[in-house]
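Consortium newsletter contribution from the modelling node. Members have asked for a concrete example of what our holo predictions look like. Here is one, prepared for the 4'-deoxy-4'-aminopyridoxal-5'-phosphate complex that several groups have been discussing at recent meetings.
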Amino acid sequence: LLGPDGVPAPTVFAEMSALAAATGAINLGQGFPDEDGPAAVLDAAVDAIRQGVNQYPPGRGTPELRAAIAEHQAHWYGLEVDPDREVLVTAGATEALAATLLAFVEPGDEVVTFEPFYDAYGALVRLAGGTHVTVPLTAPDFLPDEATLRAAFSDRTRVVLVNTPHNPTGRVLPREVLATVVELAEQYDALIVTDEVYEHLTFTTPHVPIATLPGAAERTVTISSAGKTFSTTGWKIGWLTATAPLVEAIVSVKQYLTFVNGAPFQPAVAAGLRLPDEVFHGIAQDLSSKHELLADGLRSAGFDVLRPDGGYFVLADTRPLGHEDARDFCLRLPAAAGVVGVPVSAFVRPDHAPGYRSLVRFAFCKRRDVLAEAVNRLAALA
Ligand code: PMP
Ligand code: GLN
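And here is the predicted structure:
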């Protein structure tokens, strides 16, 4: 977890947010919204604080939130989970990922993920003492090659960690890819861990939770978070659902990581999960139109744009602008155009970086006027 010079290295998101703060550039690097989400969710948190919901909540999460998570899984996906035994509330999706990997991965075990991957995956696999095996998703479609996916599994595979909709490519993994993952997990007796934090933020391709595929639910830990759906990334309320024995094992780790978290935010997230379907569709539509605004602007500025199916981010190739190295490009971008992005090389293993060298990730979870201003500034590059 140390940088190349042996000192603790900040994450690329912290690094690029600091660059934006230092230069006054528009921060399209770190993925967090600059507007509040549904008022009903915010009001419920304020009410909970005023009503004295300010002490340690129950270890697995408040019964109200666990019930709302179970209702959510049944309502949106037809997945039946027992709120008392098969749901765990965590400090964001990050803690759910950490507790799950620490619970199941032993030194020498292999964890398969697609690549690029969210930066925490590589770090958490190392913290657990595991070996990270990656399957590339390459431009322009960012779908895995089936033979490469099959070859990534072995008798040492303990976990396959899937992320859909995918950060940073925005790909919603199709059912056929997920079915191959389930087949391989069964064949090698691996646990499926699925990070679905962008589950409600899809544009036209519907999100398929891998736990809904035949044979998957009994070996799948499904992870999500309120941060993205309700624009409350700072609340750090996440959750996971899995069979009771899997949840037991993960609780045994969570109880010593954070013990519990976010008491007054838990009823607020429960209120959010129970909002009418139209609210969720509205959130996705709003983000979809922001994505159009930024993607069109990037194309006009001369980038090759790789359109996402969902999530917060769009990838842009800098080669048409004469740049081969996106990290170098990102470090110069605040001075050149007053905008910050994140190089996709930060989401891959250093030895695999060449394949992603010219790609930049830009976040569009920002106000329309902010995106319009960023697009104006980027036009200067053309
Ligand atoms: N997984 C993915 C794919 C993410 O993009 C993020 C962060 N934004 C997280 C997990 C972390 O979620 P949380 O803030 O709920 O810990
Ligand atoms: N998930 C957010 C992103 O991908 C950042 C979260 C973080 O800074 N760790 O930008």
